[in-house]
Amino acid sequence: MKVKYASFISIGGFILLWWLISASGMISPRFLPSPGSVIISLYGMIWEPFASVTLQGHIWASIQRFFVAFVVATGIAIPLGAWMGWNEKVNAVVDPVFEVLRFIPPIAWVPFAILWFRLGLKSECFIIAIGIFVPSLVNSRAGIRFVDPVLIQAAKTLGAKGRDILWHVSIPWSLPIIVGGVRIGMGLGWMCLVAAEMISRPTLKGSAGLGAMIEVARVTLASQYIIGGMLVIGVLGFAMDIGANYFEKKLGRWREA
Amino acid sequence: MPEPKIQFENVSKNYTRGNMVVPAVAEFNLSIYENEFVVFVGPSGCGKSTLLHMAAGLISPSSGTVLLDGRAITEPGPDRAVVFQQFALFPWKTVYENIKFGLRFKTLDEIEKRNTVEKHIAMMGLNGFENSYPHELSGGMKQRVAIARAYAVHPAVLLLDEPFAALDAQTRTIMQEELVVFGEEERHTVLFITHSVEEAIFLGDRVVVITRRPARIKEVIDLKDSGFMPDRRERSLDEVLSSEQFASLRTKVWGLVRSEISNERGNR
């Protein structure tokens, strides 16, 4: 058996087991809908909206939120982390506060997110952004701080000074590490996204987003939509990670050997 | 007497480890003249690399001064390019880009830069590897790139810090011979650090034997005046190594180095 078929067997086996349990009638479909009903519900959602929004509408709404949060979070975290890694004084000032804040789970920010930004796009983006922010900053700082010192020495003896070293040595050297941090952050942020959307008290009338869709399905006891939403979230998150991983590997090609 | 190119003037360097002060270099005095190839040889960990790093401006002396053309060295710069034992190539840059790195900070137009890079690629036999990345190269090739990169900035003094120590014996021999050839093509003032007595005698105009820590001059052996094979640079390393003159020099220098190593043992 080739290794590459293993993933098909793993996924196939999982669905089979799920189907066997639901088909046996041991558990009511309300608590465990069959794989078939989930697929049919999702498929049907392409044309017939659930919670006033189609499947692609929910997906698009989530991706938009995620994208806004991603841009804001990495846009602040990467330069700030790099600055902290580059300048010991900046780090000394920012680090104590950051070290405390970083251990607060993003979800714990929900009450304040709602107070500050009210319910809606901004508060949800805020929660997601915190998830992306922390690992991005940590890796950006570590990457810049732990550049191979002999490379910096070599650059200096070849005429590089100050900022030249940052731009031409530290940043290129750290890039794969920074992308690695962003990748971890994206995973965290994606999980926060769903939680943020669920908390925003979605209603049947026009609450878009995969988390909102699950929340509405929970209230209406439409369990096939709950599992459907979970599946889409899992698949999209996985796809995103594959993309980020590819990017990370590509940037870090020179690290091989 | 000509003006020295590099001058160590009463140079001392102490490191602090916790409460202890560890002297690495003590009262070191030496002048290196234009176009001279000076080799520091001594037991490993004797502080000879510290001397080179001070000439490079990467570390500063605790007291005394290192001068270049009479001016105190305070910071690193391309007039004193360094070749490191660990190659220190930029792994995300190709061979071409690595060699071009130092030219970025010079006021040359693009054509001059390209010509300089291509000249040094040809000189080091790197044709066909321009677009390779360091991780695709052998140790010997990596060090060729590092040497080309250092030569390309046209340094007043070239500083080589045990450049061949990480290479296998065969590659090392070839590189030693080639370094001599480049030295003939483009006269340079060179400070070369090694722990290999053979390498020191083969390459150097002057061999400076360094004592164990703290580094002092044990003895200076002037090979230009000693009448030792003035044409050795045109011969192969094997030929030089098998000569009688070489054997007696080797015995002499090795005796000096060995006494430093056994001294250290005796003191422990």
From TrEMBL, chain A:
It comes from candidate division WOR-1 bacterium DG_54_3. This is ABC transmembrane type-1 domain-containing protein. GO terms for cellular component: plasma membrane. Belongs to the binding-protein-dependent transport system permease family. It comes from the Bacteria. InterPro entries: MetI-like (IPR000515), MetI-like_sf (IPR035906). The keyword RNA-binding does not apply. Its main location: membrane. One of its GO terms (biological process) is transmembrane transport. It is a multi-pass membrane protein. Residues 59-244 form the ABC transmembrane type-1 domain. Keywords: Cell membrane, Membrane, Transmembrane, Transmembrane helix, Transport.
Automatic annotation (TrEMBL), chain B:
SMART domains: AAA (SM00382). CDD domains: ABC_NrtD_SsuB_transporters. Residues 6-237 form the ABC transporter domain. It holds the Pfam family ABC_tran. InterPro entries: AAA+_ATPase, ABC_transporter-like_ATP-bd, ABC_transporter-like_CS, ABC_transporter_ATP-bind, P-loop_NTPase. Keywords: ATP-binding, Nucleotide-binding, Transport. One of its GO terms (molecular function) is ATP hydrolysis activity. It comes from the Bacteria. This is ABC transporter ATP-binding protein. It comes from candidate division WOR-1 bacterium DG_54_3.
